[in-house]
TrEMBL record:
<keyword id="KW-0547">Nucleotide-binding</keyword>
<keyword id="KW-0597">Phosphoprotein</keyword>
<feature type="binding site">
    <location>
        <position position="104"/>
    </location>
    <ligand>
        <name>ATP</name>
    </ligand>
</feature>
<keyword id="KW-0963">Cytoplasm</keyword>
<dbReference type="GO" id="GO:0004550">
    <property type="term" value="F:nucleoside diphosphate kinase activity"/>
</dbReference>
<dbReference type="Pfam" id="PF00334">
    <property type="entry name" value="NDK"/>
</dbReference>
<keyword id="KW-0067">ATP-binding</keyword>
<feature type="binding site">
    <location>
        <position position="11"/>
    </location>
    <ligand>
        <name>ATP</name>
    </ligand>
</feature>
<dbReference type="GO" id="GO:0006241">
    <property type="term" value="P:CTP biosynthetic process"/>
</dbReference>
<feature type="active site" description="Pros-phosphohistidine intermediate">
    <location>
        <position position="117"/>
    </location>
</feature>
<keyword id="KW-0546">Nucleotide metabolism</keyword>
<keyword id="KW-0418">Kinase</keyword>
<dbReference type="GO" id="GO:0005737">
    <property type="term" value="C:cytoplasm"/>
</dbReference>
<keyword id="KW-0460">Magnesium</keyword>
<comment type="subunit">
    <text>Homotetramer.</text>
</comment>
<protein>
    <recommendedName>
        <fullName>Nucleoside diphosphate kinase</fullName>
        <ecNumber>2.7.4.6</ecNumber>
    </recommendedName>
</protein>
<dbReference type="GO" id="GO:0046872">
    <property type="term" value="F:metal ion binding"/>
</dbReference>
Length: 154
């Protein structure tokens, strides 16, 4: 069974639009386990690292400014193949092109206010969880639903 952890950030548009519960609820209903959860006030240096792959883009300064407008909600989810499962749930970067049923398609219209960030690879998930969460902020616990959600792990 390939149990993974992935980092999700709910962006300032999610907080401003009162969509935190809706977004978290979609991940919960899927069966992803919350192992870390907090509000984070992002700094420019955190964002320089987090969006380093976009540093040469013309919109780099404006997405950093956007991400610092309010605190964001940081969540670490755990589940079988969680990284890919979460990327499928959130949908593609442009909410107008994302598949119907995904968080971005159903709840957003606009890049960069596309509501959520989620790790896109095992390597990035490892780095991103460490970037935003200390070890003591991550929890391991059993839920009575684990046997139904995790099943035989297929
Ligand atoms: P990226 O890592 O390419 O996408 P994703 O969030 O789907 O992994 O981009 C990070 C964020 O940067 C994206 O969620 C919104 C913003 N962005 C723009 O504002 N304009 C753009 O053209 C792109 C590609 C991204």
């Amino acid at each position: 069974m390939n149990v993974q952890r992935s980092l999700v950030l709910i962006k300032p548009d999610g907080l401003q639009r009162d969509l935190l519960g809706e977004v978290i609820g979609r991940f919960e209903r899927k069966g992803l386990k919350i192992v870390g959860l907090k509000l984070i006030r992002l700094t420019e240096s955190m964002l320089d690292e987090h969006y380093a792959h976009l540093a040469d883009k013309p919109f780099f300064a404006s997405i950093k400014e956007f991400m610092m407008q309010t605190p964001v909600v940081g969540i670490v989810f755990e589940g079988i193949d969680a990284i890919e499962a979460i990327r499928k749930l959130i949908g593609s970067t442009n909410p107008r092109q994302a598949d119907a049923g995904t968080i971005r398609a159903d709840l957003a219209m606009n890049v960069p206010s596309n509501l959520v960030h989620a790790s896109d690879s095992v390597e990035n998930a490892t780095v991103e969880v460490k970037r935003f969460f200390k070890d003591e902020e991550l929890f391991q616990y059993e839920k009575i639903t684990d046997r139904y959600v995790f099943g035989e792990g297929v």
